[in-house]
Amino acid sequence: MPKESLTCSPNWQIQKASLAMNTFTVLKEERTGFLAWRLKFVQKEASDGKKRKSQTPSPKGWDGDISSILVLLHLLPPPPHGCKRPGKLSARQAYDQLVKFLKTGTSIQDHLDSVRESRQPYLLACGNTKHMIHKYYIVTDKHVIPCKSSDSLAAFDELFKAHFGFGTSYNQDLINVYNFLQTTIYDIDVGSSKVSPRVAELRARFL
Length: 207
Description:
The protein is α+β, with helices and mostly antiparallel strands. It has one domain. The protein is about 50% helix and about 15% strand. The protein has a four-stranded mixed β-sheet. Strand 3 and strand 4 form a beta hairpin. Helix 1 crosses helix 6 and helix 7 runs parallel beside helix 8.
């Protein structure tokens, strides 16, 4: 089992405590919101039937809750990178920007050492298989923070909160997904947030 002893410097521990304090005050009823969205999502998928399934591949291997979040990357794919970074990630390529799998027994430190550049927070899922995760971590700037829960939705909830707790921007490849979650699930800055037409359309369908 991966060790949790490599967390970080004293300053990072202070930030970790700050994260816990800030997110409890900024975001409320997270589990209720997630479960409500999950039910709506399943109902929508079922009602759309085969047509939706052909357009929206189901992520293989992950449990149902993580899969439902990854499916959003197909419904709200990464935007083009623009002139400075030509090209565009596919939805499947963007999976790794959101959650990475680390097999039990693999060194977390080796994983951190392999990260070549600073990145926005993402989930590191540790387990025997993607469907059997026993521990989630939040990784950002080559630091790792153990999630409080091994439940996939609760871990993703912590990941979302981490952006507010550390004052970091969303990963641009995931901006559409995060904007959808922010305005539709968490009901944060709904009137003032600028979202893409695709996010606005999906939001209207889910409400």
